[in-house]
Records
---
Amino acid sequence: VSALLRKLSEATGVSGREDEVRAMLVEELRGTADSARVDAMGNLVAMRRGTGASKLRVLIAAHMDEVGLMVTQVEDSGMLRFARVGGIDERILPARPVTIGPNRVPGVIAIKPVHLAEKGETDRVAAPKDLVIDVGATTKAEAERLVARGDVAAFLSEYVEPLPGSAWRTVQGKAFDDRAGCALAVALLAERLPFDLVAAFTVQEEVGLRGARVAAYAECPDCAFVLECTGANEMPVKKDLSPSTRLGAGPAITVMDASFIADPRLVDLLSATASRLGIPHQFKQPNIGGTDAGAIQRARAGVPSVTLAVPCRYIHAPTGILNLDDFDHALALMRESLQRLPGVIERSAT
Amino acid sequence: VTDLIKRLVECSGPSGSEGAVRDLIRTELEASGLLKRKGCQASVDALGNLVVLRKGSGGGRRVMVAAHMDEIGVVVTHVDEKGFLRFSNIGGVRPLNLNGSRVRFADGTVGVIGLERLEEPAKLPGLERFYLDTGARDRDSVKVKVGDTACFFRPFEEVGGRFVSKAMDDRIGCVVLLQVLRELDASPHDVYAVFTVQEEVGLRGATTSGFGVDPEVALAVDVTGTGDTPECFPMAMHLGKGPAIKVRDGGMLAHVGVKDWLVRTAEGAGIPYQLEVLEGGTTDAKAIQTSRAGVPAGCVSVPTRYVHSPSEMVDPDDVKNAVRLLVAALSGPITIG
């Protein structure tokens, strides 16, 4: 799995420009998916036939896009103004290496050397509107040979595996949110299940669940599992408060977040399956964030939905840390839960 | 009816956990014999909305009338070492109403809401400063877990002839809808009475049931604020002066034809009414209005004081007249221009 996760993580796919990730997934699914299509918005929807024992229509979904930046203006100096695409903390931007556009033009988000900082300047965080990306060009014309207004920039970040002999199985890299979910979906499509399994690799989740909305409308499933990568925060705190999730404590089941309330039958299926098989799992702290489930649940006359996520530290930033044990447990839990799904959810009338 | 109101408002149904309310409504429907009528049926959809079809005599329209079963509440986010629980809101929970309140979980566990010591007592604390105390001695003796939901816990009271409860929003709408189903005698219309879920967290049940029912005309029955209490936000509605016919709220402009149809009905039948212009908040009608290719939609509201507090107050005359208005409106032809 680490090889696939590396490929997917190092691919770029800022919201609206998911092409590279999609092409990679199309290749991965050759041989497992019985059919695959790309819809009007760019979602990749693949289907794997089941044994036919159950007539359920089941959707799994993972988003291909990642947060990033978009070039809004090329300055006379050759520097690039930009806007954020998706939720990015402005504090992480300065001095960050990025790649711009499909040709991966390398750039750096500019910052003054500490020697030149004026009094008080180092105490403040620069607002994104005051920042620029520097590609090394010295004039507007030079820069425009390589980049154009509207190009997107992704963080440049190598996938890093633990050194041989490490006691831990954590990997570092960007865009595990939600390439980890994509990798889970790829693995699940290789399963032989009692029902036909549809996997939607969605676009534009980070800017408002836009791809999932139309994919779910088209597929009209009986229920949906959203495969995600969610934030873990274990930074030291004084108060006895909960981290959103913990790394290494198993996949996180969402009961409720800002976008939806999970179907209790699906929550019970996941937690009971995990308990029975001794798979570690946790419940994500309620009311934080949102996932494609928020859009899928409200498609047409409604879709019972749940989200299962691999925890990851430092999501929406250039380098996250993910535990491969959590990934493996998420896969095992989904596999077993899907086998047990018939009987939990009924085939809808339409 | 007072007995039905008492049972419905004392039931627990935070958004996403409306099962107990739905069961109670179903039992009432069965007891009323309505479901035995030809062409009438009740079903529960994918999100948990209870959809009751009362078949009309023919020649009428497909009308959806929605009232939501859910109420605001809290969800547990963390259990600490000592057994105290931290929580987040389900829907519009106001910190000002919390300290010393009690909540009840589905398993019967009661939690008392406590507040940390405040460095600046004059400043309104956020939800993160409050906690729940279920009487537990430590983490291991806590009976509820992260993700469990609870709602505010107060008995129903009759106060000076007015009704007070933690969940008038919108059990009183459910009561009105149940009464309409019982009292509606002859109607040409196929009336879909939909008891919706998850209104308080974003009109989610109405979004999907609006699509599923695919109505030609839609109404919500919900509560609205009043402007008749000391130093309150100025509003024209008064408790006891009749049900409110919605003109607009924070999320919807009511279809003018629907509003006029309700006004004509009220005037024709001599039913007191008020016109509602609400600046904040909205109802299920908003979601149904923009379902599919669009639905002419309006709302009949029960004026309510102290909405989203544990003591929401309504006037029984307004409830009675809301039922009369809807029964009259659904008994005749619907002309909405």
---
Amino acid sequence: MLKEIKTSKVEIDSTINEKQKHAFIETKVAKAKKMLKRVGLPKELMVKIAQ
Amino acid sequence: MNLNKYDLKVSPNYISFRFVSEGKKGKIFKEIVFTPIENPNIWNLGFGDVDPISGTISDSITSDNGDSNKILATVAYATLLFSDNYPDALIYAEGSTPSRTRFYRIGIHKYLEEISETFTIWGLLNDEWQLFQKNTGYQAFVVKRRL
């Protein structure tokens, strides 16, 4: 089980600003949007979303 | 499955994760960021090295720090923590280069049985999605937590 991966420490750090717009993230998101617009999602997920 | 992984620091909303890779090239700061792409609930998994001075992330660097298994286990664990908090999220992952995509593929391939207990994984092959199969050169991946 993934949950059985040897435990490591997980610490909340409020200084991590997830809203920080790294150029890296913008590039990745733009690329992902372009790809998903072209190929869509797996059929099984489209069915679930439509329900 | 008893993989070592790195300690994680996480933003309060469990969207950004940081850790420090320690290997033959010293300490390398890493960040994993889940970013919403669009509805319905699709998130991009971004992962790369953090420049300690500028704070910017790059996934075009090949660190080669000799700890790839530990890094893969850490990314998998961050994905698990993220999905604990966003169980309906669809997670899209694609490497910035074919070798980075291959890195993701090797990680999924290696632990497919264990990962499949918690997640459903699709791979994109020739612009068609299919359930992940071993030894297939996928272009991208979508991961969904099993409810």
